[in-house]
Amino acid sequence: xxxxxxxxxxxxxxxxxxxxxxxxxxxxxxxxxxxxxxxxxxxxxxxxxxxxxxxxxxxxxxxxxxxxxxxxxxxxxxxxxxxxxxxxxxxxxxxxxxxxxxxxxxxxxxxxxxxxxxxxxxxxxxxxxxxxxxxxxxxxxxxxxxxxxxxxxxxxxxxxxxxxxxxxxxxxxxxxxxxxxxxxxxxxxxxxxxxxxxxxxxxxxxxxxxxxxxxxxxxxxxxxxxxxxxxxxxxxxxxxxxxxxxxxxxxxxxxxxxxxxxxxxxxxxxxxxxxxxxxxxxxxxxxxxxxxxxxxxxxxxxxxxxxxxxxxxxxxxxxxxxxxxxxxxxxxxxxxxxxxxxxxxxxxxxxxxxxxxxxxxxxxxxxx
Length: 368
Fold this sequence. Notes:
With 368 residues, this protein is mainly beta.
């Protein structure tokens, strides 16, 4: 009788371990804090888990921040607001800050915020959205004589115009925006094209901008690129005006779908393992998602029991080490949050546990 009871307990424990293994990754949730007022938003995270974004300050304005265990506010260029949008491995930040009436792109390095200027022209706006480990920054900037904005890359102390997907006769009047850059210098974004209003996702490398197409609809945008050259973004689909998150690998754009009950989804970040994060509508409202192993899952279902978040609505970035940053609600306040992956035992560990359980069972039987 004792043998049977012990065996039952062991088998139940082993089944629980197996179910845990199949359940996959879970996350510890950290509230990144605020800057005086309750609202904050997370936008990017590096491999060390240092997150950036913006937080509300007194007066209702926002200031850029980075959080390395504590929240640190950045300044402006004389205006009221700033936003940090990207961070690299060495802790350099990119984003934009107001000069007064307009925003200028910045690079923050060694405690100094540098105004990256524009592509020319007085009172022109620029905003930065991505940075790689070499400190190259990408974004959008106005240029002389046109109301249009062009994608740019900033390196070696100068801002360079990436052009557009339009031909040379009308590119002067078309807009393009660069959203991310990887460590090989490959840049992704969105650009208008000749003769049409609808923009398409692009990949720019060595001065050549390539149209990535769509999921069958009219518009698309590439928002993130990994060091393995996988791209995440959003595209209109063929069957309706709905927008779906996509993953683009080796010339193929794959529709990632939506969460149950949803219509639209948006791909915002991707890492070198090909995991995509973003936001999807669902029957329960807007939810942050992760796409892996061919399936889209609400991140809200993967939090451990310590989570203070009632609803994570958006995920904007995922590092190669698995950190995820985004925005969710805590006690009714919209807050920047960081997800840290909990350790998951390797498959060999599960096998060893199983073999150990069987060995104990054999010994018990022999003694009985």
